[in-house]
């Protein structure tokens, strides 16, 4: 049975390993970003839309922004603060309850699906 000291030591090694791995991943992503930004800048210089000095500043600014942005900030920017609202709009609601069942709307939907399938078959034949 491992002692508390062994568990603590493993936890510390795990933390150090995770930090090292995260640093390596961040470094490789930063290198990828620099490469892609450089390619984009080279293309813009080639087209004459940017000077070489502007391209160099562009690449440096992109890398600097990536270094300053923390993962928490990027996660907050990607996720909206509130759920997206979805509004369901129908031109007419033809749901007539019969014996506790809503068959009018179902029949209409089936008819619409059938019409769409017929239209699709017709378009495939043309």
General description of the model:
There is one protein chain. The mean pLDDT is 77. With 126 residues, the protein is mainly α. The chain contains four helices and two strands; from the N terminus they run αααββα. The longest helix is centred in the N-terminal third of the chain and has 44 residues, at 4-47.
Features:
2 strands; mainly alpha; 73% helix; 126 residues; 2 domains
Summarize the entry for a quick read.
This protein is mostly helical and 126 residues long.
Largest sheet: 2 strands, antiparallel
Q: Structural class of the helices, strands and pairings? A: mainly alpha
Q: Helix segment count?
A: 4
Strand order of the largest sheet: 1-2
Q: How many structural domains are formed by the residues?
A: 2
Gyration radius (Cα, Å) is: 30 Å
Instruction: Give the end-to-end Cα distance, rounded to a whole number of Å.
Output: 76 Å
Helix content: over 70%
The stretches of 5 or more residues where confidence is low (pLDDT under 50) are none
Strand content: under 5%
The ordered H/E elements are HHHEEH
Number of strands: 2
Bulk shape: flat
Average pLDDT rating: 77
Oligomer: single chain
What is the element layout, followed by pairings?
Blueprint: H1 4-47, H2 52-68, H3 71-78, E1 97-98, E2 101-102, H4 103-125
Antiparallel strand pairs: 1-2
């Amino acid at each position: 049975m491992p002692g508390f000291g062994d568990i603590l030591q493993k936890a510390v090694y795990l933390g150090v390993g995770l930090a090292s791995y995260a640093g390596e991943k961040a470094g490789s992503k930063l290198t990828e970003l620099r490469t892609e930004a450089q390619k984009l800048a080279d293309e813009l210089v080639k087209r004459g839309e940017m000077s070489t000095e502007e391209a160099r500043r562009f690449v440096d600014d992109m890398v600097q922004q990536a270094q300053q942005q923390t993962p928490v900030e990027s996660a907050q920017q990607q996720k909206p603060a509130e759920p997206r609202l979805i509004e369901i709009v129908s031109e007419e609601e033809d749901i007539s309850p019969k014996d506790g069942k809503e068959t009018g709307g179902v029949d209409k939907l089936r008819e619409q699906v059938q019409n769409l399938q017929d239209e699709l078959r017709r378009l495939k034949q043309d």
